[in-house]
Design brief:
Number of strands: 7
Radius of gyration: 20 Å
Number of helices: 11
Structural class: alpha/beta
Shape: globular
Largest sheet: 7 strands, parallel
Helix content: 40-55%
Distance between the termini: 20 Å
Bound molecules: nicotinamide-adenine-dinucleotide
Length: about 290
Protein backbone atom coordinates (compact mmCIF):
# COMPACT_ATOMS: atom_id res chain seq x y z
CA UNK A 1 0.00 0.00 0.00
CA UNK A 2 2.32 2.72 -1.27
CA UNK A 3 -0.29 5.47 -1.08
CA UNK A 4 -1.21 5.74 2.61
CA UNK A 5 -2.40 9.37 2.75
CA UNK A 6 -5.99 9.58 4.02
CA UNK A 7 -6.05 5.89 5.01
CA UNK A 8 -7.39 4.95 8.47
CA UNK A 9 -5.32 2.87 10.91
CA UNK A 10 -6.76 1.13 13.96
CA UNK A 11 -4.01 0.58 16.57
CA UNK A 12 -4.71 -1.58 19.59
CA UNK A 13 -2.55 -0.52 22.51
CA UNK A 14 -1.89 2.72 20.63
CA UNK A 15 -1.82 4.95 23.70
CA UNK A 16 1.77 4.18 24.66
CA UNK A 17 5.08 2.81 23.48
CA UNK A 18 5.32 1.04 20.12
CA UNK A 19 1.64 1.59 19.24
CA UNK A 20 2.01 5.32 19.84
CA UNK A 21 5.22 5.31 17.78
CA UNK A 22 3.23 3.81 14.89
CA UNK A 23 0.50 6.44 15.37
CA UNK A 24 3.08 9.25 15.18
CA UNK A 25 4.57 7.87 11.96
CA UNK A 26 1.13 7.33 10.41
CA UNK A 27 -0.12 10.84 11.22
CA UNK A 28 3.11 12.31 9.83
CA UNK A 29 2.26 10.45 6.58
CA UNK A 30 -1.22 12.08 6.51
CA UNK A 31 -3.04 8.97 7.72
CA UNK A 32 -5.90 9.03 10.24
CA UNK A 33 -5.49 6.92 13.38
CA UNK A 34 -7.71 5.34 16.01
CA UNK A 35 -6.01 4.86 19.35
CA UNK A 36 -7.80 1.81 20.78
CA UNK A 37 -6.61 1.16 24.31
CA UNK A 38 -7.76 -0.07 27.69
CA UNK A 39 -6.15 3.01 29.30
CA UNK A 40 -8.63 5.74 28.31
CA UNK A 41 -6.69 8.58 29.97
CA UNK A 42 -3.51 7.64 28.12
CA UNK A 43 -5.49 7.25 24.87
CA UNK A 44 -6.87 10.79 25.22
CA UNK A 45 -3.42 12.16 26.05
CA UNK A 46 -2.11 10.41 22.92
CA UNK A 47 -4.78 11.86 20.63
CA UNK A 48 -4.19 15.34 22.10
CA UNK A 49 -0.55 15.01 20.99
CA UNK A 50 -1.44 13.59 17.58
CA UNK A 51 -3.96 16.29 16.58
CA UNK A 52 -7.25 16.24 14.74
CA UNK A 53 -6.50 13.21 12.56
CA UNK A 54 -6.62 10.96 15.68
CA UNK A 55 -9.50 9.62 17.77
CA UNK A 56 -9.48 7.60 20.99
CA UNK A 57 -11.73 4.55 21.39
CA UNK A 58 -12.02 2.40 24.51
CA UNK A 59 -11.00 -1.21 23.92
CA UNK A 60 -10.17 -4.18 26.08
CA UNK A 61 -8.75 -6.58 23.48
CA UNK A 62 -9.89 -9.60 25.51
CA UNK A 63 -13.58 -8.72 24.91
CA UNK A 64 -14.86 -9.66 21.43
CA UNK A 65 -17.94 -7.41 21.67
CA UNK A 66 -15.69 -4.47 22.61
CA UNK A 67 -13.78 -5.00 19.35
CA UNK A 68 -16.97 -4.79 17.32
CA UNK A 69 -18.11 -1.65 19.19
CA UNK A 70 -14.70 -0.01 18.73
CA UNK A 71 -14.63 -0.83 15.00
CA UNK A 72 -18.10 0.70 14.50
CA UNK A 73 -17.13 3.85 16.43
CA UNK A 74 -14.00 4.33 14.36
CA UNK A 75 -15.86 3.78 11.09
CA UNK A 76 -18.42 6.41 12.14
CA UNK A 77 -15.71 8.88 13.16
CA UNK A 78 -13.03 8.37 10.50
CA UNK A 79 -14.48 6.12 7.77
CA UNK A 80 -13.56 2.53 6.82
CA UNK A 81 -10.41 1.09 8.41
CA UNK A 82 -7.57 0.16 6.03
CA UNK A 83 -4.79 -0.79 8.46
CA UNK A 84 -5.18 -2.96 11.56
CA UNK A 85 -2.25 -2.89 13.99
CA UNK A 86 -2.77 -5.77 16.39
CA UNK A 87 -0.32 -4.41 18.92
CA UNK A 88 -1.68 -4.33 22.50
CA UNK A 89 0.39 -6.53 24.76
CA UNK A 90 1.71 -7.09 28.25
CA UNK A 91 4.71 -8.78 29.73
CA UNK A 92 4.62 -11.07 32.73
CA UNK A 93 3.72 -8.93 35.75
CA UNK A 94 4.79 -11.74 38.07
CA UNK A 95 8.28 -11.74 36.57
CA UNK A 96 8.76 -8.07 37.44
CA UNK A 97 8.46 -9.11 41.07
CA UNK A 98 9.92 -12.62 41.22
CA UNK A 99 12.23 -14.89 39.25
CA UNK A 100 9.60 -17.55 38.53
CA UNK A 101 10.31 -20.84 36.71
CA UNK A 102 7.78 -21.95 34.09
CA UNK A 103 5.91 -24.32 36.39
CA UNK A 104 5.61 -21.55 38.99
CA UNK A 105 3.69 -19.16 36.73
CA UNK A 106 0.40 -18.51 38.54
CA UNK A 107 -2.60 -19.77 36.55
CA UNK A 108 -4.27 -16.33 36.76
CA UNK A 109 -1.20 -14.72 35.27
CA UNK A 110 -1.03 -17.27 32.41
CA UNK A 111 -4.69 -16.73 31.49
CA UNK A 112 -4.39 -12.92 31.75
CA UNK A 113 -1.26 -12.71 29.58
CA UNK A 114 -2.45 -15.18 26.93
CA UNK A 115 -5.86 -13.45 26.86
CA UNK A 116 -4.26 -10.13 25.90
CA UNK A 117 -1.22 -11.20 23.85
CA UNK A 118 -2.76 -14.08 21.90
CA UNK A 119 -6.57 -14.13 22.08
CA UNK A 120 -6.65 -10.33 21.78
CA UNK A 121 -5.00 -10.51 18.35
CA UNK A 122 -7.32 -13.35 17.29
CA UNK A 123 -10.34 -11.16 18.13
CA UNK A 124 -8.79 -8.30 16.16
CA UNK A 125 -8.58 -10.55 13.11
CA UNK A 126 -12.13 -11.84 13.62
CA UNK A 127 -13.35 -8.24 13.65
CA UNK A 128 -11.43 -6.80 10.71
CA UNK A 129 -10.67 -9.69 8.32
CA UNK A 130 -14.30 -10.01 7.12
CA UNK A 131 -14.31 -6.25 6.46
CA UNK A 132 -10.95 -6.38 4.63
CA UNK A 133 -12.07 -9.35 2.52
CA UNK A 134 -15.31 -7.54 1.58
CA UNK A 135 -13.76 -4.26 0.40
CA UNK A 136 -12.14 -3.46 -2.94
CA UNK A 137 -9.74 -1.07 -1.14
CA UNK A 138 -6.15 -2.03 -0.32
CA UNK A 139 -5.85 -3.01 3.34
CA UNK A 140 -3.01 -4.17 5.61
CA UNK A 141 -2.59 -6.03 8.90
CA UNK A 142 0.40 -5.65 11.23
CA UNK A 143 0.66 -8.20 14.03
CA UNK A 144 3.13 -7.23 16.74
CA UNK A 145 5.13 -10.34 17.63
CA UNK A 146 8.68 -10.00 19.01
CA UNK A 147 12.17 -11.42 18.56
CA UNK A 148 11.10 -13.46 21.62
CA UNK A 149 8.71 -15.30 19.26
CA UNK A 150 11.53 -16.19 16.84
CA UNK A 151 14.20 -17.35 19.30
CA UNK A 152 14.05 -17.70 23.07
CA UNK A 153 16.69 -15.34 24.37
CA UNK A 154 17.41 -15.60 28.04
CA UNK A 155 15.76 -16.08 31.38
CA UNK A 156 15.42 -12.28 31.45
CA UNK A 157 12.50 -12.55 28.98
CA UNK A 158 9.63 -14.16 30.92
CA UNK A 159 8.52 -17.65 29.82
CA UNK A 160 4.82 -16.84 29.41
CA UNK A 161 5.70 -13.81 27.27
CA UNK A 162 7.98 -15.85 24.99
CA UNK A 163 5.32 -18.55 24.62
CA UNK A 164 2.66 -15.95 23.74
CA UNK A 165 4.88 -14.41 21.06
CA UNK A 166 5.63 -17.82 19.51
CA UNK A 167 1.83 -18.16 19.24
CA UNK A 168 1.63 -14.86 17.35
CA UNK A 169 4.34 -16.02 14.95
CA UNK A 170 2.28 -19.18 14.28
CA UNK A 171 -0.93 -17.16 13.92
CA UNK A 172 0.66 -14.76 11.45
CA UNK A 173 2.45 -17.43 9.38
CA UNK A 174 -0.85 -19.33 9.09
CA UNK A 175 -2.68 -16.14 8.13
CA UNK A 176 -0.11 -15.52 5.39
CA UNK A 177 -1.06 -18.86 3.80
CA UNK A 178 -4.76 -18.11 4.11
CA UNK A 179 -4.38 -14.68 2.50
CA UNK A 180 -2.70 -16.02 -0.64
CA UNK A 181 -5.97 -15.59 -2.56
CA UNK A 182 -6.40 -12.00 -1.29
CA UNK A 183 -3.75 -9.87 -2.98
CA UNK A 184 -5.37 -6.64 -1.78
CA UNK A 185 -4.73 -7.55 1.90
CA UNK A 186 -1.12 -6.95 2.94
CA UNK A 187 0.35 -8.59 6.04
CA UNK A 188 3.33 -7.83 8.25
CA UNK A 189 4.73 -9.41 11.39
CA UNK A 190 6.65 -6.98 13.57
CA UNK A 191 9.56 -8.59 15.42
CA UNK A 192 11.43 -6.14 17.64
CA UNK A 193 14.26 -6.62 20.07
CA UNK A 194 14.24 -4.30 23.06
CA UNK A 195 12.28 -1.08 22.71
CA UNK A 196 12.22 1.86 25.10
CA UNK A 197 8.72 1.54 26.55
CA UNK A 198 7.19 1.17 29.99
CA UNK A 199 5.71 -2.26 29.26
CA UNK A 200 6.92 -3.62 32.61
CA UNK A 201 5.30 -0.96 34.81
CA UNK A 202 2.17 -0.79 32.63
CA UNK A 203 1.79 -4.57 32.87
CA UNK A 204 2.31 -4.60 36.62
CA UNK A 205 -0.16 -1.73 37.09
CA UNK A 206 -2.88 -3.54 35.09
CA UNK A 207 -2.37 -7.11 36.38
CA UNK A 208 -5.60 -7.91 38.24
CA UNK A 209 -4.11 -10.92 40.04
CA UNK A 210 -1.33 -9.00 41.84
CA UNK A 211 -2.21 -7.22 45.09
CA UNK A 212 -1.77 -3.49 45.53
CA UNK A 213 0.68 -4.28 48.36
CA UNK A 214 2.92 -6.31 46.01
CA UNK A 215 2.66 -3.60 43.35
CA UNK A 216 3.77 -0.97 45.89
CA UNK A 217 6.81 -3.08 46.87
CA UNK A 218 7.92 -3.21 43.22
CA UNK A 219 8.77 0.51 43.30
CA UNK A 220 12.19 -0.45 44.71
CA UNK A 221 12.88 -2.98 41.95
CA UNK A 222 15.94 -1.70 40.01
CA UNK A 223 14.91 -3.82 36.99
CA UNK A 224 11.50 -2.19 36.61
CA UNK A 225 11.48 -0.49 33.23
CA UNK A 226 14.93 -1.83 32.41
CA UNK A 227 14.22 -0.87 28.79
CA UNK A 228 15.08 2.79 29.33
CA UNK A 229 18.12 2.78 27.02
CA UNK A 230 16.58 0.60 24.29
CA UNK A 231 15.52 1.55 20.73
CA UNK A 232 12.99 4.37 20.41
CA UNK A 233 9.36 3.53 19.60
CA UNK A 234 9.32 6.43 17.12
CA UNK A 235 11.86 4.63 14.93
CA UNK A 236 9.88 1.38 15.19
CA UNK A 237 6.82 3.31 14.00
CA UNK A 238 8.69 4.67 10.97
CA UNK A 239 9.93 1.17 10.09
CA UNK A 240 6.39 -0.22 10.36
CA UNK A 241 5.12 2.48 8.01
CA UNK A 242 7.81 1.49 5.48
CA UNK A 243 6.79 -2.15 5.94
CA UNK A 244 3.16 -1.32 5.16
CA UNK A 245 4.17 0.68 2.08
CA UNK A 246 6.49 -2.08 0.79
CA UNK A 247 4.28 -4.98 2.00
CA UNK A 248 7.15 -6.55 3.98
CA UNK A 249 5.98 -9.71 5.69
CA UNK A 250 8.83 -9.84 8.22
CA UNK A 251 9.65 -6.55 9.89
CA UNK A 252 12.88 -7.14 11.81
CA UNK A 253 14.02 -3.95 13.50
CA UNK A 254 17.14 -5.22 15.32
CA UNK A 255 19.66 -6.89 12.93
CA UNK A 256 21.96 -7.84 15.82
CA UNK A 257 19.67 -10.84 16.51
CA UNK A 258 20.43 -12.46 13.12
CA UNK A 259 23.39 -14.61 14.38
CA UNK A 260 21.19 -15.96 17.19
CA UNK A 261 18.48 -16.91 14.70
CA UNK A 262 21.12 -18.58 12.51
CA UNK A 263 22.34 -20.69 15.46
CA UNK A 264 18.82 -22.03 16.10
CA UNK A 265 18.03 -22.60 12.43
CA UNK A 266 21.38 -24.32 11.78
CA UNK A 267 20.76 -26.67 14.69
CA UNK A 268 17.29 -27.52 13.35
CA UNK A 269 18.56 -28.13 9.83
CA UNK A 270 21.45 -30.28 11.10
CA UNK A 271 18.98 -32.36 13.11
CA UNK A 272 17.13 -33.68 10.05
CA UNK A 273 18.50 -37.21 9.85
CA UNK A 274 17.13 -40.38 8.28
CA UNK A 275 13.37 -41.05 7.94
CA UNK A 276 11.83 -42.71 11.00
CA UNK A 277 10.26 -45.21 8.55
CA UNK A 278 12.61 -46.57 5.93
CA UNK A 279 11.30 -45.91 2.40
CA UNK A 280 8.49 -43.55 3.45
CA UNK A 281 8.31 -40.02 1.91
CA UNK A 282 5.66 -37.36 2.65
CA UNK A 283 4.04 -35.97 -0.51
CA UNK A 284 5.43 -32.49 0.23
CA UNK A 285 5.27 -30.69 -3.13
CA UNK A 286 1.49 -31.02 -3.45
CA UNK A 287 0.63 -29.26 -0.24
CA UNK A 288 3.60 -27.42 1.21
CA UNK A 289 4.35 -23.81 0.25
CA UNK A 290 7.92 -24.66 -0.75
CA UNK A 291 8.26 -21.60 -2.96
CA UNK A 292 8.27 -18.11 -1.47
N1 LIG B 1 9.04 -2.97 24.52
C1 LIG B 1 9.67 -3.97 23.94
O1 LIG B 1 10.89 -4.17 24.14
C2 LIG B 1 8.93 -4.87 22.99
C3 LIG B 1 9.70 -5.69 22.14
C4 LIG B 1 9.04 -6.51 21.23
C5 LIG B 1 7.67 -6.52 21.18
N2 LIG B 1 6.94 -5.73 22.01
C6 LIG B 1 5.48 -5.78 21.88
O2 LIG B 1 5.01 -4.50 21.48
C7 LIG B 1 3.65 -4.36 21.87
C8 LIG B 1 3.49 -3.02 22.56
O3 LIG B 1 4.24 -3.05 23.76
P1 LIG B 1 5.01 -1.77 24.35
O4 LIG B 1 6.37 -2.18 24.68
O5 LIG B 1 4.77 -0.60 23.48
O6 LIG B 1 4.24 -1.61 25.74
P2 LIG B 1 3.36 -0.42 26.35
O7 LIG B 1 2.97 -0.85 27.71
O8 LIG B 1 4.07 0.88 26.20
O9 LIG B 1 2.11 -0.37 25.38
C9 LIG B 1 1.14 -1.39 25.43
C10 LIG B 1 -0.24 -0.75 25.33
O10 LIG B 1 -1.21 -1.81 25.35
C11 LIG B 1 -2.29 -1.39 26.18
N3 LIG B 1 -3.02 -2.56 26.68
C12 LIG B 1 -2.64 -3.46 27.62
N4 LIG B 1 -3.62 -4.33 27.85
C13 LIG B 1 -4.63 -4.02 27.00
C14 LIG B 1 -5.91 -4.56 26.74
N5 LIG B 1 -6.38 -5.62 27.44
N6 LIG B 1 -6.70 -4.00 25.81
C15 LIG B 1 -6.25 -2.89 25.11
N7 LIG B 1 -5.07 -2.31 25.33
C16 LIG B 1 -4.26 -2.88 26.24
C17 LIG B 1 -1.62 -0.60 27.30
O11 LIG B 1 -2.55 0.26 27.97
C18 LIG B 1 -0.55 0.16 26.52
O12 LIG B 1 -1.03 1.41 26.07
C19 LIG B 1 3.32 -5.56 22.74
O13 LIG B 1 2.63 -6.53 21.98
C20 LIG B 1 4.70 -6.07 23.14
O14 LIG B 1 4.68 -7.43 23.46
C21 LIG B 1 7.54 -4.90 22.90
Amino acid sequence: MQDVAGKVAFISGGANGIGFGMAQAFVAADMKVAIADIDSDAAHRATARLGKRAVAVPLDVTQPEAWEAAASKVEAALGPVHVLCNNAGVTSAESVLHDTPLEGIPTDEWKWLMGINVTGQFYGLKTFLPRFKATQDLTHIVNTASMAGIVPQSRAIPAAYTISKYAIVGLTEQLRLELEGFPRIGLSMLCCGLVKTQIQSHSLKRAPHISELEKAKSADNPFLDALSSAMSPENIGKRVLKGIRDNDFYIFTHPEYKPLVQIYHSEMEASFGASAELGYTDPLPTWLPLKR
